[in-house]
Amino acid sequence: GPFQSLWAAYAPTLGLMIFLAFAPTVLVNIFSMLFNFRSEVKNQIELQNWYFWFMVFFVIGVTVVGQNFVQFVEDVAKEPTALPMLL
Length: 87
Prior knowledge:
Blueprint: H1 4-34, H2 40-64, H3 69-78, H4 83-86
C-alpha cells in the first residue's frame, strides 16, 4: 500500500527503541526471580552493571560489527592492530 515504504523505513527503528525501553524492566524482573537481593538498591546496582555491559555489547558488537560481519572479520584478520579504528 501507500504506507509500505514508510513502514519499512521506521518499523525496525521503532522496534529497536521499544526493545531497549523494556530491557531494564525485563532485567529487573529476571534478577528478582533468580537472585535474593537484600534491598532494592542492590537490585538497581546489579541492573546498572548488567545493563552497561549489555549496551556495550549491543552497540559495539551488534550495531558496528553486525553491518557486515564477514567483512569485519576479514579486515581484522588482515590487520589486527586496526581493530580500534574499525570499531
